[in-house]
Model the fold of this input.
Amino acid sequence: MPRKGGKHADMVKETQAQCKRPKLDTAGSPSVLRFESPDSLFRSLISPMEEEVFFREYWEQKPLLVQRNDALVAAYYQCLFQLSDLMELCSQGLYYGRDVNVCRCVNGKKKVLNKEGRVNYMQLKKDFDQKKATIQFHQPQRFKDELWKIQEKLECYFGSLVGSNVYITPQGSQGLPPHYDDVEVFILQLEGEKHWRLYKPTVPLAREYNVESEDRIGNPTHEFILKPGDLLYFPRGTIHQADTPHGISHSTHVTISTYQNNSWGDFLLDAIPGLVFDAAKEDVALRMSIPRQLLMVNTADSTKKLSSLLRRLADHLESSRELRSSDMKKDFIMHRLPPCLGCDSDPLTPGGKLPKIDSKIKLQFRDHAIITVEPDQEHADEIRREMVYVYHSLKNRRETHMMGTEDDTASEDGLAQQTHGLQFPLSYLDALKQIWSSSTVNVKELNLTSDEEKENLALSLWTECLIEVL
Done:
């Protein structure tokens, strides 16, 4: 699930111009998915497999194949993305590399057939028909509202970024060589049929993408044909390859992927610095100097000392029962999809009237906001005082979802993408937790000292569309 992206200014401007154009949408087929909540969406996605059984027996363990033979599901899947959508999409200004890859598997290797610059539909169709090339379309949720709805709900469900790619392969052809990915994969077969072969992982729960040679992977553990309406799941690290059988005009499937860099190891890398910082305030052993020349020569004694300090950190964690993760939380909130309110909805506006001291309020978009406690970012050179930060994704741009990091994705003003949120003194933490944990709360009952603070907190959250005044 790599974040595809480019740094070319002209390409970015093209993308920004597209934001104001109508997007292609799903039409003409009733949804077979349930969007009432993130839980209901996921359960309907893997149906008839039970959610509990899925996580107990399949998640991160083995592939799951759901073959439905259901015309209603097949019709819904087909209108998520079709080969015929490409002509209109190309007219919106797509670029090779950024939006589309054209490739074919030749003698066990991936051959990229991309041209330069903007994608011309006639050239793309020619490569598809004559060179038997696979068209890989990056992050179609930027254009297709139904995929936006699905992936936004899945990001709420997993608490992790969810990307997607569409693969369109002509008959008798294969786009990619045998390989494994660093993501959990859900494949929805949209058009035609695809012949799949899965193999035992050489690196279980892999942390990176890698191509494997045919002579190394052995015989398939699973081999089957996916048809429209079918779903396939397999864990990261699962070696796989797929081709469109002869006699089938083409195959279209969408790969929905998640849990990239979202392991316990990643969480510890993010959380341990804060844990050490907090523990060192109370434990003098963590403030003692390291031995002379330790940075030049490591010794057995220093290794034993480090092991002892790590055990002290574990004891501190047991007593505090809190393990902070700031960077992973912020990365998720900064890069995830905004709420999908429907193509005809107005832009987000504050809910209800201006909040007053006697107002009753409730949190909205709970799944799109987080509270963190961090050192003051505006006075980094002074004494490190802690502040409360509320980050949210309500103003994120769908058009840049999964298309690059904050370093290479430009926003409308030409600057790097910003994290949206609010900053409060640490004394506001209890009041914020009160709002987050309650279905409704009266402003005057917020855990703050003065009425002015209570009104200011409510007004700040209301302005950001995080609360509704009832």
